[in-house]
Amino acid sequence: MTLRLGDTAPDFEQESTAGVIKFHEWLGDSWGVLFSHPSDFTPVCTTELGLTAKLKEEFEKRNVKAIALSVDPVDSHHAWVNDINETQNTRVNFPIIADADRKVSDLYDMIHPNANATLTVRSLFIIDPAKKIRLIITYPASTGRNFDEILRVIDSLQLTEHHKVATPGNWKPGEDVVIVPALQDPDEIKQRFPKGYKVIKPYLRMTPDPRQ
Q1: Strands (DSSP E) along 128-197, which ranges?
Q2: CATH number at residue 182
Q3: Which residues are catalytic?
């Protein structure tokens, strides 16, 4: 199944380290980060899950729930969590889905046969409270994810959800943003952006981050 941005994230029911997960019910009115890892007891994945645990407060600030997945069984996950806690100096505080039957992996197209026919690649989905997929990133198994970038994208998505702006390349929260080209009414622009804006080109208008 090929998923695209804007699609409804497929619902599922699957066992996890936190018991049976009914995904849409578990997500509730939160944003979600669903990410897969190739296998338990692997070095890069161990660091990634440790980083995710350490970012708990950052995710909570953004109303985000994190949930991981691999095709290993739940008893393997539980044993691996002990290693993650020990080696990464943290405590895993989010569920890890045990997708031994590959039900979720197939729903989310997480197995790429030309990369590996049996293991999930490093897929990551950001899902909004309406259960729509807002971001899809796929890394090769050899490359760990950049979690600063994941937080940055969430910040951008949540900002642009409520304001008629887009975020430029390398944008970070607090920096200037772009007024969307579709917004042309001068009075509405003045009302929405009371701090003013700078016209660089007619299609490129910069304004301070409206949340600041």
Answers
A1: 133-139, 165-166, 177-179
A2: 3.30.1020.10
A3: 45
- Are both 136 and 80 inside the same structural domain? yes
- Give yes or no: residues 93 and 140 share one domain: yes
Look at residues 153, 160, 130 and name the one whose alpha carbon lies nearest to residue 35: 153
CA 69 to chain centroid: 13
**Cβ pair 133, 153 in contact under 8 A:** no
Mean pLDDT computed over every residue of the chain: 93
The answer to whether residues 102 and 197 belong to one domain is no
Which strands form 198-201's sheet, in the order they lie side by side? Answer: 165-166, 177-179, 204-207, 198-201
DSSP annotation of 73 reads -
Q: For the segment 130-187, what is each residue's pLDDT rounded down to a tens digit?
A: 999 999 999 887 889 999 999 999 999 999 999 999 999 999 999 999 999 999 999 9
Entry pTM: 0.92
Looking at the domain assignment, is residue 156 inside a domain?
Answer: no
CB 17 within 8 A of CB 123: no
Nearest CA-CA partner of 130 in 105, 99, 157, 95: 157
Task: Tally Cβ neighbours within 10 Å of residue 35.
Answer: 26
Q: Domain range holding 167?
A: 163-207
- Residue at which a domain ends, from 145, 173, 196: 145
Write the CB contacts of 107 (distance below 8 Å, at least 6 apart in sequence): 1, 10, 12
183 and 106 in a common domain: no
DSSP 8-state code for residue 28: T
